[in-house]
Amino acid sequence: MGLTGLEVGVIDFFVSAVKVLGLPKSIGEIYGLLFVSPQSLPLDALCQRLNMSKGSASQGLKLLRAFGAVKATYQPGDRRDHFTAEVELKRLVAGFMREQIQPRLSHGEERLAQLLSLGGQLSDQAAGHFQRQRLQKLERWSQRSREVLPLLSGLLE
User: Fold this and answer.
1) What would the pLDDT profile of 52-79 be if each residue is shown by its tens digit?
2) Positive or negative torsion for Cα 136, 140, 143, 149
3) pTM over 0.85
4) Cα→Cα distances 140→50, 79, 86, 112, 123, Å
5) Is 82 helix (H, G, I), strand (E, B) or coil?
6) DSSP summary character for residue 54
């Protein structure tokens, strides 16, 4: 069964959104179809409707489940997992922050600590002074990001 015009439009909307976030197109396709589907869908239906390989759909579902963007639902009499989209914005953003942003910030903080250590070894010449100022700016940016993310999360409650 092919996709309706509405399904194509909603899928395209989410494909554009995930591209901005640097995620694979398949993530937007899967989420878009589940978002607009009135019933939960099993993996094989997602593959067929989206003309997607089982491996790609399975990996996409795994990532979407890690984000909390989709959940498996039970269908009486069917042993397969069926999937439905999570539509609460707060949960979507919280899942994305937990899986994508927090690990990168943590890595960034570790890297910044290494850079600050290197900055302590800079000479007192003009170039060293300039570079220390830039490291201080990076440190302020890092601090602000740690302050802003909880605020953003709170706005979505």
Assistant:
1) 999 999 999 998 988 888 999 988 888 8
2) negative
3) no
4) 45, 52, 35, 11, 22
5) strand
6) H
131 versus 59: the higher-pLDDT residue is 59
Separation of alpha carbons 106 and 125, rounded Å = 32
Q: Are 108 and 101 in contact (CB under 8 A)?
A: no
Category of 122 on φ-ψ map: left (φ > 0), alpha (ψ -120 to 50) or beta: beta
Distances (CA, A) of 153 to 22, 63, 95, 144, 157: 20, 20, 11, 14, 7
Please give the pLDDT value at position 50. Answer: 96
| Helices assigned H by DSSP within the chain | 5-20, 25-36, 43-50, 54-67, 89-96, 102-119, 126-155
| Residues 81 and 42: beta-carbon distance below 8 Å | yes
Closest CA to 100 of 70, 63, 71: 63
CA atoms of 140 and 146, how far apart (whole Å) = 10
Fold of 5-85: Arc Repressor Mutant, subunit A (1.10.10)
Query: Diameter of the chain by CA atoms?
Result: 75
